[in-house]
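Now for a specimen:

…
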Amino acid sequence: MNIGELARRTGLSVKTVRYYSDLGLVPEAGRTHAGHRRYDAGATLRLDFVRGLRELGLDLATIRRVLDREADLRRVAARHADAIDAQIRVLRVQRAVLRALSRRDPTPDEVERMNRIAQATADERRRIITEFLDGIFAGIPVDPQFEAMQRSAVEGLPEEPTGAQIDAWIELADLVQDQGFRELLRRMGRESFGPPEAPKRPAANQETDRLVTERVGPAVAAGIDPAGPAAGAILDDLLPAMAAAGGAQDGPGYRREMLAGLELGADPRPERYWQLLAVLKGWPQWPAKTVNYAWLRDALRSRV
């Protein structure tokens, strides 16, 4: 067949077929007396093979070596797949940084810092979280089992994070380097594990958490104003049950203590920390409950 027929059969342009032929990728079967190129049926198969490898990203020099049996296609494909994996990770990082930048108005220094955060290795990610935990536990006599649990949660961070995990990591790294967040956790630690004379919050347990979820959750979903009259009825129903579940008795003193505890406990950042860590660890999504406690805090503020 002539070059035009070969081009039609393969879906390539005549110019491309001629170029590949000049490179030796598609040998000619012969030439006419007038010097026109002629090709056999094998040229169609060879061109289809070349086109397939090109669409997979292999360069022409490598394809020529494969066709000439100077390179093993399996090994070439494996190396090329590894190179694509590296490119994908770079693109994921770039996408995550760009998404993060789109949500703020960063300075050049912040752009550089966020890019460094996104590029961090698994070891560097663990080191950032470990330094954060060292800072919040220092000087506070926390329960050793509680501290061990907190530290074990950062083990096994992914070596090759997905795009969603890179997004989560950028946000988490910002959060754990927030001095205000660190001080919040230290204050919570002092209240929970400090000396007997230190102020204590009313203890939460599974039953009080269930009560808040069942009775405040619908109020939040319905958009009930925590300062409005309907909220008062909810509090009068909820707080005696919560006090009983915690071994206490409802009253002005209990409600003041509850409000004081919620001023810290209703902060959304600790919950967000665990939600982001869950994404990085591949855990089930951490349920969002702080919004219910924030509603309860606001309802108490307007009445205590």
Q: What stands out?
A: Residues 3-71 form a domain with the Multidrug-efflux Transporter Regulator; Chain: A; Domain 2 fold (CATH 1.10.1660.10). The CA atoms of residues 74 and 259 lie 66 Å apart.
